[in-house]
Fold each of these.
Amino acid sequence: MKRLLYTVTIAVILSITHASYAARSPQRIISLGPSITRQLYLLGVEDSLIGCTIYCEKPKEAKEKERVANAIDVNLEKVISLNPDLVLATSLTNPKAIKKIEALGIAVILFATPENFSQLCSQFAELAERLGKGERAQEILTAVKDKVYLLKERVEGFKKTRVFIQVGAKPLFTQTRDSFINDLIEFAGGVNIASGAKSGFYSREKVIEDNPEVIIITTMGITGEEEKNIWNKYKTLDAVRHNRIYILDPYKFCSVTPVSFAETLEEMVGILHSQ
């Protein structure tokens, strides 16, 4: 009898705790980053999303949400009118806008651009906990990490492929060692030729000197095709000689989630080891 009473008591306590936590979970969320918006949909809290940026285009349902910002600037009047209880900002969000939002008593959580896969996963878990979706996040992360492990295992022992990833055109811009993109390259069995650079600004002369075997272009719009045509003029590049210049969806690299990281990694493995 005592054991039954103890079990029932614990169940009641857990139920009350869960209900209390759920009640504290934000119900009116504004996302100021495309990657954050995608993560909200992964966690199944899209009904609580009331506003996002003009660049939040995935999933397609996000286009129906109220637009309150571009990549940097925030329409404060629109934010206030929507009466959010949580604003999720990124390192690109205008710091002055963040301060003004906080001054209104609105909670703001700032997520920096993840520097590696581990940090990407940690941020996703942190976001999920804040929204009362910790269990859902752990299910997703377990599946993602298993997939990443298997892909890394698949390329173990393969010859390392020299890679240059272009994320900007004017000026030419890439990603260095402290980025999740560097992890994508290394996990896929590649070597980032810019890993040792002090910044992402890179010259074509330096790319030619480093002579990558693969060039991946992730710039927006028609710029990708234009850049591919420019690179194809440098006939001495191994990537040009072997026709290994690829244009990939910039969302894969600029609006990343743990799930999309694993999906892009699988694509990268195919690209780097196709020959």
Amino acid sequence: MVKLKGVLTMNLNIVEGYIEIEGKNKILITALHGFGSDRFKDVIDKIRELGLDYAFSELVPSRSAVDFLTWEIAFKAAVATNSWAILPTISKVDSVDGLEIPNYNLNKEYAKETPLWKRIGELVVKGKVKLIIDIHGMKNISSWPDICVSTNGLSSASKNTISRVVKYFEKLKFNVALDKPFKGGALIRYFGKPPKVEALGIELKRNLRFFKTNTPKIMADLIRELSSEI
């Protein structure tokens, strides 16, 4: 293992499909859909417009290939707070040789076979991680909140942690909802077993993810607040 400036940890001998940041606290940040091309969705929309869905159905598992800029947000928040981070270097619409899974959507149950999931599992078993935060993105739909905190029906994290997260965002005047429109994916369901390990998703609307927004700092300040009790 090689450490770069005390932050990045890597195995130079192999390709793993993720970048790891070694943390000093017990919080792990990820963005499972943080890597890929945002333009992919426009290509899919054009395919549908031309009525060619049938010709591409096996190649297109999802309209979107990435939750735009969530990788950067997660990376900066983790570095700023000395938190763990496991961040993918493969898009969710890709397929990978050697893995018997339909695609690389890391928020599905079959993703347990991936090196990224296995590494998170190792950190959990070793007791190095007690809280997992998975950052995602959602559309600018007017009826949706600014931020959705996904908890799989309040089951993947403690009431105290969920309450602190919601109050933090509300204090910043964001419209926040629990599990609406998203209850969270396979990662938080699998690892979120409070009180031993907690996990939650944070869905950020598109208008919180563009150049010059201070979303990385907002997330970093949240992590600092949570780390006092983790």
Amino acid sequence: MRTRILDATVEFRHQPFVRPLRISSGLITEITEARATVRVNVCGKEAVGRGSIYLSDLWAWPDLRLTHFDRDLHLRELCQYIAANLWELCGSEPEHPLELGLRLHESVCCKLESPVGSLLARAMCASPFDAAVHDAVGIALGRSSFSFYEESVPIPSGDHLFRGKSACRAIARMLRSPVKKFDAWLVVSKDDSLESDVAPWVRERGYRCFKIKILGQDTEADVVRTADVYSAVKSWGVRNPRIVVDSNEANPDSASVLHYLDRLQVAREDAYNALEYLEQPTGRDITFYRNDWRMVTARKPVMLDEGLTGFEVLEEALAQGWSGLALKTCKGHSFALTVAAWAVENGMLLSLQDLTNPGLSMIHAALFAAYVPTINGVELNSPQYTPAANAEWLPRLSCLFEPTDGIHRLPDEIPPGLGSVL
């Protein structure tokens, strides 16, 4: 399965949000979609694969010294550089797609000179190319990209994580037979009206899983908001709501998270019981923002999200007591698969988000969740924020892009690659 990259291109599309998404670093009202195309040769066969990602600058690179337009320009330029130099960034030699993707991640995040000052943003820019390589190889071979790990092929950039054993073997042990249905998750942000912004999704599409954006710096307000959301969805007929909370790194420390749990349990115990986990409560640099999470995780899981940008944080996360990893394919397909396997080998949990991505990247995230055992299925948020970006896949994939009865559904036949042929 040694793969040669022949050429790559990238194009950009402007995608307005139908409603703003507020995160701790600001308000997202529009975004750029990067679509990558990569041509490969593998086993004497050529094929073209595709991948896409939203260049979510405010999430990945919240440097407020720069405007959104400045950050967006730098991210586009980085994508264009990657397209023009993909073969060199992947090591300039044929390798297994996983090795190519891990080399790309290392080159872009750690070796490349770029004005993009965030590792997370760099990984995000590289990710559609990694996906496109895997998609192309799968199409060339007529196989799902999740079937590449049946043989113990040396992966020098990943094997060291598994104490000299095989990364491919670890990934193969982790992967499951694909599931085809996932609960649909709705984001409830600070500015959302429960009646006008949340209720229609419950009443018309059957949503029963809710990711609540909380402030992180005002415990009482966070408790009230969590309880209010829970009470509202119960009043609309949701029998057993599923809830997660996300402060987008706004909590000062683990003690504030523990205080939130204490107060929520007193104020609304059934809402506390419905809370399944918390995402990245504190700053993304976990070597700087060190916390002992064991008292919190004795009660509820805490998942590392924005702080997961490289292999070097894995042991630190385990030592600090993080429960698991909140994966995103926007950090790279190869990186996400490898750290997921490492987490499972080390007794950690997995969840999966999708960065509000549409179309190709939403299909990719859904297929990732089909094979990788996560506790939440997957969050697929583009129907909520950028539904027009999914139009070219409708109506043929309405089962995935327009959930009914609170469920996203994959088609019966799993496609080759990462689903760009759907």
